[in-house]
Amino acid sequence: MSCIFCRIIKGEIPSFKLFESEKTLAFLDIGPLSQGHALVIPKFHGAKLADIPDDHLSEVLPVLKKIVTASGAVDYNVLQNNGTIAHQEVPHVHFHLIPKPNEKDGLTIGWNSKQADMDKLKALCEDIKSKM
C-alpha cells in the first residue's frame, strides 16, 4: 500500500511515536507548524472521517487530550481535513494537534464567515437531523 501513514503504522517508515495502541497511533509531525505539532491517526485506513468505523475513532480525542496535557500546550488547534479542496494532503484520516505558542507560530486561519438566512438555516438543521 502506498499510503504513507499505513507505512508508518507498519513500521516501514520511522516515526517519533508518542502513543500507540491496537487502534490508534500518535506521532510528531516531521514538517511541524510549531514545536510539538503532532498527528493522531486511526490505524484503520480511510480517506475521510465518514470512512472510519466509530470504534476506530473512540481513542482519538482522549489521546489528543493526553498529548495536550503532557506537552503543556496552553493555546492550540486541533485540525482534521477531509478531501483535497479542504486541504487534506494525505488520504488517511488524521488529526493535527498544533500548539500555538505565540502569534506567529502554529496555525494561521482566515475565516470567511457570512450572515446566515435564518429560515434556510432552520430548514438545513431539520434536514440534517432527519438523516441522523
Automatic annotation (TrEMBL):
Active-site residues are: H94
The organism's superkingdom is given as Eukaryota
Q: Which InterPro entries does the protein's record reference?
A: HINT, Histidine_triad_CS, Histidine_triad_HIT, HIT-like, HIT-like_sf
For the motif Histidine triad motif, what are the positions?
92-96
MF annotations from Gene Ontology: hydrolase activity; nucleotide binding
Q: Which residues form the HIT domain?
A: 4-108
Needed co-factor(s): Mg(2+)
- Please tell me whether the keyword Protease is annotated for this protein: no
Write down the chemical reaction(s) this protein catalyses. adenosine 5'-phosphoramidate + H2O = NH4(+) + AMP
Q: Which UniProt keywords apply?
A: Hydrolase, Magnesium, Nucleotide-binding
Gene3D superfamilies, A to Z: HIT-like
The protein's name: Adenosine 5'-monophosphoramidase HNT1
The organism encoding this protein is Emericellopsis atlantica
